[in-house]
Amino acid sequence: MEVIETKEALTQALQSCRDSRISIGFVPTMGALHPGHISLVEQCRKENSMVVVSIFVNPTQFNDQSDLANYPRTLEEDLYKLSSVGCNYAFAPSVKEMYPEEDTRKFDFGMLDKVMEGVHRPGHFNGVAQIVSRLFDAVQPDKAYFGEKDFQQLAIIRRMVAMMNYPVQIVGCSIVREADGLAMSSRNMRLTPEQRQNVPAIAHTLLACKEKIGCMSLDELKNWVVDRINNTPGLQTEYFDIVDRDSLQPASEYKENALQGCIAVHVGTVRLIDNIRL
Length: 278
What we know:
The protein is an alpha/beta fold. The protein is about 40% helix and about 20% strand. It has 2 domains: about 1-175, Rossmann fold, CATH 3.40.50; about 185-275, Pantoate-beta-alanine ligase, C-terminal domain (Pantoate--beta-alanine Ligase, Chain: A,domain 2, 2-Layer Sandwich). It has helices at about 5-20, 35-45, 65-70, 75-85, 95-100, 115-120, 125-140, 150-165, 195-200, 200-210, 220-230, and strands spanning about 1-5, 25-30, 50-55, 90, 145, 170-175, 235-245, 260-265, 270-275. Strand 2 (about 25-30), helix 2 (about 35-45) and strand 3 (about 50-55) form a beta-alpha-beta unit.
């Protein structure tokens, strides 16, 4: 595996692949890699001849500067993990490399970013689009892999690809969970032992919610989920929404296989998200 720090060097390294029409798969990450990330790399490896993984903590998608400062950075461990699962190129640029000047672009995602994360993290998805588009320009992948834990982000990236006519296939990959159900996240390593014991209640509640579909109205179901989460020690729900899977707009009635339950929960200073198909 080769570690590359500049866009120019990455372009040169991948040029022969493009000339030979060798498929390039890409997994963008912010590092602090866990088995969920590795599962993306492994799927990328199966479907492409060349695998590129980026490690870059993108400042423009953080609306909370303390969250940016506290985001875990484990570059050496990450590179070791990537080298063991068939990554060909690890792209680990500096902030100056990715943003030699301020990115002032504003993206219009219609109503996709006006709900859930978009409400509670203003500017977040615009920052995501800024960095993912810059990474796509540098890598020029045939396929790019994203986890479904960030369900709204996946929809935003699909829209961005369509808006900018990128010739890249976006592949959504299933959520990878711990044995107790907790969705894997780089932020999990910031949980205290006591918090870690309590947070599986998020996934358990979502599963229980799925079983209750049809037994109560959607508003009653949302209130039931919020109450159950908030009654768990140390957990405070920021939002729980039941939305249309395609438009991400709040649903008013049950539609079979068309709804997604999405949640954000504060656990002390850590913010966790999860979702489930209803």
